[in-house]
Amino acid sequence: MGDQDLAGELTGQGYQLTGRHSAVKLCYWTRESLERGRDCYKGRFYGIESHRCLQMSPAIDSCNLHCRFCWRNQGWENDEMMTEYDDPEGLLDRSIEAQRRILSGFGGEASVSRERWKEALAPKHIAISLTGEPTLYPRMNRFLELCAERGITTFLVTNGTNPDGLRALDPLPTQLYVSVTAPNREVFDRLTLPGDPHAWDHLVESLEIVRGLKTRRVVRHTLVRGWNLGWEGQYAELDLLARPDFVEPKGYVYMGRSRRRLTNDHVPAHEEIRRFALRLAERTGYAVLDESPDSKVLLLGGGGARRWLPGRAPEDRVALEALPMAA
User: Fold this and answer.
1) What is the 3-state secondary structure (H, E, C) of 153-215?
2) How far apart are CA 218 and CA 201, in angstroms?
3) Rounded to an integer, what distance in angstroms lies between the CA atom of residue 67 and that of residue 88?
4) What is the pLDDT of residue 74?
5) What is the DSSP string of 15-58?
6) In angstroms, how far is CA 319 from the centroid of its own chain?
């Protein structure tokens, strides 16, 4: 697919292009937070404000996996480092400008608080995920540095197949997510269709690196019924290799382009995810700390991690900055 075709495809899907290889897209939960006061599970688990969260990618056309459960378009990615790349200063400014354009219409809606809308125009959190593999962006360090200078927290989501990219991160994001979507090499190859035959080995190497990173670290298991749900013992071995602060077992959502590859029968019920999480907790020594049935996700933590319990008053919750870092 050519550059113009790619741009047209992404624009038609609601992306706001912010450079050669970067884009912003309004998150479903940002809309829900503005219109209905409902925050995503990251608000419940980690204290972010969904209406002030900006979802973006600095690598819309760079990924070395073709995961069957991915809701994004596929077929035009490459797994190479960019040779001409967006400057981080302009990227951050353009991303915020794009978010403001997307949100401009909400200011006139009766269901949206004027105060919350004004807050949303000044994002305080950036989720670096959306599409592609963000660690392939060569100026990620400067981008993270700029966000920190402006008081913006960052959650960076990686598929873990670029260990050199993880080693190079300096500064680190506020929170690092590593997606571990298979318990072993065989399932990994069938489910994620990697372009690199060594991708599984790179993921294992990344988990070893993650263990020593001095930031908040989360391993996420996206679980697809009939594909990678089960194997709790093997998942536990991977989790204990990384020793993250938190583990998130999360159910696959039947949406976007994944509907061309999977069916609604592959969507697990929340109770299935809960059983998986309980078995995983037994094998890792982590505790089940919280859950969000709406998002089919549970939060596991260990090593003295302090969390609030469902139903606790907001003033009793642990602030984002107070969450435990790596030892």
Assistant:
1) EEEEEECCCCHHHHHHCCCCCCEEEEECCCCCHHHHHHHHCCCCCCHHHHHHHHHHHHCCCCC
2) 19
3) 28
4) 57
5) -EE-SSS-EE---HHHHHHHHH-PPPHHHHHH---GGGEEEEES
6) 20
The pLDDT of residue 4 is 52
CB 158 within 8 A of CB 166: yes
- Looking at residue 307, what is its pLDDT? 44
| Alpha carbon distances (Å) from 110 to 30, 37, 264 | 17, 13, 35
CA dist 46 → 212, 245, 318 (Å): 21, 12, 9
Does residue 171 have a cis bond before it (omega within 30 degrees)? yes
d(CA 59, CA 54): 15
Spatial neighbors of 191 by CB under 8 A, at least 6 apart, are 67, 68, 69, 181, 182, 224, 227, 228
Q: Which residue did the predictor score with more confidence, 255 or 46? A: 46
Distance (Å, whole) CA 139 – CA 196: 23
Residue 318 reports pLDDT greater than 50: no
- Please write the tens of the pLDDT for every residue from 255-265: 777 778 988 99
Lowest mean pLDDT: which of 4-8, 90-94, 296-300? 4-8
In order of their start, the domains of the chain are 3-74+81-317 (3.20.20.70)
Write out the two tokens for 207.
């988990």
Instruction: Tell me how far apart the alpha carbons of residues 200 and 152 are, in angstroms, rounded to a whole number.
Output: 33
Q: What pLDDT, on a 0 to 100 scale, did the predictor assign at position 319?
A: 38
Asked whether residue 275 carries a pLDDT value surpassing 50, the answer given is yes
Span between the terminal Cα atoms of the chain, in Å? 46
- Of 189, 85, 92, the C-alpha closest to 136 is 85
Q: What is the pLDDT of residue 11?
A: 59
Average pLDDT on 167-175 reads 98
